[in-house]
Structures are given as structure tokens and as C-alpha cells.
Amino acid sequence: MISLSKLEKMALAPRKRKVAALLREFARSAREGKAERWSYWLKILHLGADLSGAETERPLPDPKEVEPLQSEAPAGWDLAYLARFADEVAWNLFAQVGIDAADWNLYTTSDNFSWGRTFPIQLYLDQIRSPYNLGAIFRTAAAFGVEKIILSKDCPEPNHPRCRRTAMGATDWIAWERSESLPNGLALFGLESGGRDIETFEFPPRGVAALGSEEWGLRPQTLASCRSSLGLVSIPLPGKKASLNVAAAAAILLQRWTGKINTPPTSPGFDP
User: Fold this and answer.
1) Quick one: how far is CA 217 from the chain centroid?
2) CA 237, CA 224: separation in Å to the nearest integer?
3) What is the pLDDT of residues 45-104, one digit of tens each?
4) Partners of residue 151 on adjacent β-strands
5) 252, 253, 260: which is closest to 204 by C-alpha?
6) Under DSSP, is residue 234 helix (H, G, I), strand (E, B) or coil?
7) Of the candidates 78, 102, 95, which has an alpha carbon nearest to the alpha carbon of residue 30?
8) Smallest Cα–Cα separation from 139: which of 124, 149, 129?
9) pTM higher than the cut 0.70
10) Starting from the edge strand earliest in sequence, which strands make up the sheet with 121-126, in order?
11) Where are the alpha helices (DSSP H) in 35-160?
């Protein structure tokens, strides 16, 4: 976390941007009741209110009410109200420095968020062409706790503006690399038509899932690698449309996979 003294030395516009980003992080933490160093965050909240000129419905808690390193909010504090107010101040500050509403969600602190589970699962994206799809997959992967994303040479750069816009910060949170080689020593399967029903597929407790291009699916060499490992998995589509957007398919896949990992080993269809 950036120190208050360093914030004070910043020019006004970058100070507002940084405080806004900090307040958005605080809003998420306060909403979940697990922020740390409450004294620091209250000082940031007061600073943001002063910078934005926002008026509160009720007095904000005094940072002196808590110890400098106190990790628990005092009983009786309305954390939901503090979270909402912090979020409103953040949006106000972003608007004041001319950040377009469509870009607000791209701004985070420089620190990765420390909460949330990470699963020992990876995605191999095989010629995903659209930066929008790539960004959506990054965002979905962050939501489901994916450990790493591997990009083939034909995927767009994660820092592409349209990718970053869709990812909403997730390209900064998930480890990724570009490689034509699939990871060695890990179970591998592909999301492709003609595979085993996703409801009965035996997902590994750790491994790699390969997702192919929007038009052509997985390349022959990737298909061969998948078939020599765990094979292919498919999502049944009983409706009139015979295919899904690759980002939507990735979301369904990750929900099923992480759900299986969270399921006790005695559950049917899961063998750790």
C-alpha cells in the first residue's frame, strides 16, 4: 500500500487517480468485512472525500478510533455504508480527472488482490483471435481462480486496449506466458465438439484445458496432444444453435472444473 506521505507529494490529478483506485479496493474489502489496517483505509476514505468534495449522509469514523495495525473493524460500524460511500467517491474522482466511464473498471492499485482461492489449473488458448474474447477469458479465469494462461503465438497481446477493456484488470492479476509448447507433466484435455459430456467428464485435480480458435477450434497437433492425455470434453447444446462463443464456453468449463475440485473425493465422477 502506498504511504500517505507519498500520496501528498503527488500532483493533484495522479493523486486523485491513485486514491480512487485505492478506494475501489477498500470498497470491495469493506463489503466483505475483511479489510486490514482499518486506520490506513479510513484515512484514505477521508482523503478521497476531501479531494472529491463528496458529502456524507452520516459522519465517517475517525481513524483515531482504531489502532494503526488493527485488522478488525469495531463492532457497530456500518461496513456496507462505508463500502458504498468509498465506491461513490472513487467514481467521482475518476470523473474529475477525465477518465471515461467505460474505462473506470480498468483502474486498480498496483498490488494484486490477496483474497480468493487459486486452483492448480491452467488454460492453453490455441489461436484465439479476438482481443475481446481473450479479455473475457482472462476475466472469467480470474473469477474462477485459474493459476496461469498460456497463449499460442497467434493470440493477441493481453495489453491490447480492447483486451484490457474487456478483462477489467484481470490481465494484471493472472500469470500468463506465450508458448507453442504445452506444459509437460500435467494432465491435458481439450474443449471441443465430439468429446465426453461435461457432466460426466472426470476432471483432474490439476491440469491444463485447451480452448481453440473461434472459427476452427483446436489445431490438429493440439487435438493429438489432448487425445494422448485425457481426451476431449464437450458442452451439450440442446437448442437451435450448435456452438457457443469461446469465452462463454470457457466460463461453463471452469465452473464445472472448479466445482469438481471443491467436491469431496467420495462424490461420483471424481477421482483425485
Assistant:
1) 25
2) 24
3) 999 999 998 887 788 888 888 887 777 777 778 888 888 898 889 888 888 877 655 555
4) 125, 178
5) 260
6) strand
7) 78
8) 149
9) no
10) 175-178, 148-151, 121-126, 207-212, 188-197, 231-234
11) 38-52, 79-96, 131-143
